[in-house]
Amino acid sequence: MGFPSFTLPGMLLLLQFILLLFYSQQAASVQHNNFTDLAALLSFKSQVRDPDGLLDRSWSSNTSFCSWLGVSCSSRRLRVVALRLAGLSLHGTISPHLGNLSFMTHLSLSNNSLGGLIPESLGRLPRLTYLGLGVNRLSGRIPATVFNMSFLEYLSFTSNNLSGPLLLRNASFTVPKLKSFSIQSNQISGTIASGLLQCQDLEELWLSSNQLSGSIPAEFDKLQKLTSLLVDTNDLTGTIPASLGNLTSLVELDLHTNSLRGPIPPELGSLRNVQWLNLADNILTGGFPASILNASMVSVLSLSANNLTGSVPAELGNNLPFLTKLGFGPNQLSGRLDFITSLSSCRKLQNLYIADNQLEGSIPDSVGNLSRSFLKFNARGNRISGRIPMTLGNLSGLLNLHLENNWLTGSIPPALSNLRELQLLYLGSNSLSKSIPYELGKLKRLGQLNLEFNELNGAIPDSIGNISGLQFLRLHNNRLSSSIPRSIWSLTNLVGMYLSQNSMEGSIPYGIGNLATLSNLDLSTNRFSGSIPDAFGQLLMLTTLNISNNFFDGPIPQSFGKMISLRYLDLSSNEFSGPIPKSLADLKYLVGLNLSFNKLEGQIPSGGVFANITFRSLMGNIGLCGPSFLRIPPCSDQSTDSDPRSKQQKLKIILPTVASLVVLFSCSFFYFVLHRKSNHAIPSSNTTCLKHYSLIPYRDLLRATDNFNESNLLGAGSFGSVYRGRLDDGSLVAAKVINLEKEGSSKIFDVECQALRMIRHRNLVKVISTCSNMDFKALILEYLPNGSLENWLYSPGYCLTLLQRINIALDVASALEYLHHHLRQVVVHCDIKPSNVLLDEDMNAQVGDFGIAKLLASDGKSVALTSAAGTVGYMPPEYGFMGRVSRRGDVYSYGILLLETFTRKKPTDRMFDGELNLRQWVSDAYRTRLFDILDANLFRDARVDRVAAEEDHGTRNRCLMSVLELALQCSKDSPRDRILMKDVVPILQKIKIEYCKSFPET
């Protein structure tokens, strides 16, 4: 059978037909597949919120999705091959339909606010090489499908809320081409997955800041391409495997903040390429590892916060010429400071942290040969003796110098004035003598000058007034004399000035009014004299003023009433005369006042701070008169009392008034008897605790809450529920309805009534009324529209700025200070936690829920517990093993709340088991790894990201460190070691002032 013959034109026509058919089929296929990709993208967009409107503007139906923001397509098939939407502030969840983008090789959604679970479908993208979901709010487990992606090279889940083990038992881990893997800053638990050891191409392994336990696998040395191994901030135990020394390609090795024990293996000296070596915050023992000197490329070396002993090798710097940061304090290292001489070989050295050891001897003169880029030198808390070397003045770029708490003697060398970039100079708690050098006035960038607790004498040099940026001047507890130089009153940036416990004299000039930012002024225990100028009224930021134990005389100025921020005022042991200014009663924040041992006279004002003042604060003023409970003579008007006609006039007024009150009482009594059955909510006796409020009938409360409709439910607890309601006058309230079926619930109601009867403070939830009968009890409280602190910490879409957190912390502290120190009968809240801190429309915090509060004697002594008090995680240890409640128990709970507010970690988090708790976790990390423990939301501020914050050496970091340090002081295990709330408030105020001064736009 032969083939038919065709002419050339016929052949061409047939070929054209075949090609047309082929392309039409291809077009149909492309159209179908494009529809799949389009549907996947639109599904993703439907599940996210885009506050900046970037997707709304770009992802338009009028244009091809290949031109949409973040979308890349293949040129031939027009299929989505990459989706790059990092850093767009997206909220919502990740659509599982993204798993339909089967041609995608690159997916980056990092640096957003996406929550919910990671869809398992993402693990089925056959061509994916890059998956970046870091810095979001994703939760739950990492899908097992992700660990079976044969082409994946980059995988990051950094900074989310992921939990659980990496893999379930017997699950496979097959990612053969993986080069970079990061799960740092999550809550991943379990041991380090052995499947990682099969990834022979792995170069970066970042497992930091999780809850990983067990030991570091010795088999890590199989990963010969590894350049970065970060397993810090976990719960790892055991020893450091010597086999890590075989990873000769390592550039970064970070094991800090675990529970690793034993000596540092000498094999680590074989890491000839390592530049970052951090073994801090463990339980390592033994001597300073001499073998580390072989790791000649190391730039950052930290051995801080361990139990290392012995001396530091004198040749340290000669062998490590590339050092930029060296830290090995605190430890138990001893010996002399000879190693400083060798550090002059490190021409890039910036930071030297050797604080809190047992180093001794003098600082060698060779310290002046350190790098010109040297920035920070911290040798506090050692046994360093001798003189401060003049050669320190050669370090012209130095920013911080910490030599406090040592045994230094001699004078302060004038050569320190050459440190023109210096910001912090701490020389306190030594034995320095002679006068303060005039040359220190050349340190124009100095922000803090701390020379307290020395033996300095003479006058404060007038040149100190040239340091225009000075914020804190601490010269207390020395032997200074003469008067305060006039130039000091020109330091308009001064926040704190502490000159107490000296022998200074002279008067206070009118120029003090120039210190507009001054928050704390302590001139106590000196020889100052003269009258107090009215210019004090210009100090609107002043919170603490202590001028006690001096020789001031004359009247107390009425202008003191203008210091609207004043909280503590101590004028005791002077020679003030005349009446107490009534304007002091108008200072709404004034909670501590001491006027004792002066020559004051006349009637004690009423209201304000005087409502709770004690005899101790007024004793030694024989001319004062007032209420009998103050143990001073009553006030009387002799001329009026001795005049019979005046007495008759009084009787004409008093008798009709008494008669009217009797009639009014009788009418009220009969009205009550006749109408008690007409209202379901006539209050029982326990509502009389709030008798100055009008009571709310039960039927009105039903109407206000729409019959306690579930849509008005604000929250529920073991002792009742809280409903939102709108009263007939239109005001919003919160009704706390007590669950009377719960044992002890009536007592809860009574306790809250008893507590609320005696308290009234801007930072305590205000009670409006009650509603009570035999079958129903409710407290009617002020409605706070922004909910609880707990909601703001943990609910999706909520985010608190640093300043908001500081304000909330200060508000709660102020409330507790009032309860603990400014009532006749001390109130201990017993249940301080985020859910009991409520926020009003301006984000001011108010403490509520006094259901288990305890009323103590006026001396604040502890009382025995008769029932459980507090919430697990926030209860102080003594509640359990001592069974006693005291003010310091609230301080502990407050400290835990403070830690939780800034770390966004609950004390009951699953990562805290065994010996580790929230406090220990923060204590182990906050000095060296501040940004690993802080809430990542703190860096969602548009003005700062985490990288910028970590590089910042300024106010933001100091504020955060100060807050965490305060929280740790509050939450110490021993009640005696905790500070009191009256001391917490001024510390927080200082922190806030320092922050607001540096970031006024906030």
Automatic annotation (TrEMBL):
Its UniProt entry gives the catalysed reaction(s) as: L-seryl-[protein] + ATP = O-phospho-L-seryl-[protein] + ADP + H(+); L-threonyl-[protein] + ATP = O-phospho-L-threonyl-[protein] + ADP + H(+)
SMART domains referenced in this protein's UniProt entry, alphabetically: LRR_TYP, S_TKc
Question: Where can this protein be found?
Answer: Cell membrane
Report membrane topology.
Single-pass membrane protein
Q: What class of enzyme is it?
A: transferase
Keywords per UniProt? ATP-binding, Cell membrane, Glycoprotein, Kinase, Leucine-rich repeat, Membrane, Nucleotide-binding, Phosphoprotein, Receptor, Repeat, Serine/threonine-protein kinase, Signal, Transferase, Transmembrane, Transmembrane helix
| GO BP | anatomical structure morphogenesis; plant organ development
State whether keyword Transmembrane applies. Answer: yes
One Pfam family matching this protein: LRRNT_2
Signal peptide residues on this chain, from the entry's feature table = 1-29
Which superkingdom, per the lineage? Eukaryota
Q: Which residues bind ATP?
A: 736
- Which residue numbers delimit the Protein kinase domain? 708-988
The similarity comment for this entry is: Belongs to the protein kinase superfamily. Ser/Thr protein kinase family.
What protein name is recorded for this chain? non-specific serine/threonine protein kinase
This protein's species is Ananas comosus
